[in-house]
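Ticket #4471: structure output looks truncated?

Reporter: J.K.
Steps to reproduce: submitted the chain below (443 residues) through the standard prediction queue, then opened the result file.
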Amino acid sequence: MLGEYRIEGRRASDIAASVERAIGAGELQPGEVLPPLRELAVYLEVNPNTVAAAYRTLRDRGVIETAGRRGSRVRPRPASTPREALRVEVPPGVRDTSDGNPDPSLLPPLERALAAAAARSSRRPVLYGTPAVDEELAALARSAFADDGVAEGPITVTSGSLDAIERVLATHLRPGDHVAVEDPGWGSLLDLVPALGLRPVPVGVDDEGPLPARLAQALEDGARAVVITDRAQNPTGAAVTAARAAELRALLADHPGVLLIEDDHGHGIVDLPLHPLSGVTDHWALVRSTAKAYGPDLRLAVLTGDAVTVDRVRGRQALGPGWVSHLLQDTVVQLWQTSAVDPTAVAGAYGRRRDPLIRALAERGVPARGRSGMNVWVPVPDETGAVARLLHSGWAVAPGARFRLHSPPGIRITVSQLSRGDIEPIADAVAAATGAGEPRRYE
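Returned output as attached by the reporter:
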């Protein structure tokens, strides 16, 4: 290697910069082994501690990874959104149940809320130096969190759940740290973790949330952070019960140094109570997005957590986008104050599509899961074949590979656009596609 590219420098910073230039130029490839520390020190005529410091800098920056006696190597380039490519192209005439979108008819109209926010902005323009978080929004969010039993903490605002989770992870973790994630779980999160140079550790999920034994193993194996979906888990619909929350809190209490992140994106579309885990670890965060209840384009999530975590998120955000638009914040305030969404009614609307589909599948010998939210998860023996056969039958579903690490194959069906008359036909199609039985006749 030293003959192909001359790593240069007398100081640790210069050596690290030399390696990064080589990677950027393509002269050091992902996965390529770097020279042994002492060998490079001899070559550069520097103290081995200098090379060790350079390698440590590169490792902290996520440029290289170390594997003990196997040495140090250039980290593989993380794919930014590989799971997004695992989607079905929906041809004309095929019903799309793959997209994970809410039902537009259940979203509140935004005209009045946006107009009120615009009028307020005209009266009191937001200028540089204005506090990043609207006082009314913070007060309403804090009150709602308190009503749900979430631990006391400051409030900040981000551009959606994933933005919040990324910022929280970045405040505490270093490249190479392990993060316990649900499996199957949210595909975007499964992309984000390796993109940050972190290593996902799969934790199995049942209808009541993460399995305690699997989480315990992940924690014993050194996971530095845990991400848990409280309700309407994507893709399985799991919701953490009171009993499961007690088990998980006990586990986390034995590992106070672990960063806990809770995602309550189902707020506003589920009528199951929240059973938060927050407050048992030194550092924690709970994020609540507006996307499912008010529309994906309303890019706002409220975040609470321990003071150190929230302060770090605010500080880093100030050096990037600065703040989330107060027009959006004021719009959400208007929607909250007018109770624009009735969670019981919305949850009922999704439940009247989700629950009959699960029953219809069970009648045909097809087990399925979907305790809350807008998705149904169906285990299948042949994921690729099931997706293809369903497409041929006129139904597009999401391939389970978008949501899995080590869990068995499956497909995700979003029920948002299903009507009562769609339940029997899609259940027949799924049964036929999975080989569970012959389709039934229906009117």
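Triage note (M.O.): checked the attachment and the full token line is present. Confidence is low (pLDDT under 50) at residues 438-443.
Status: closed, working as intended.
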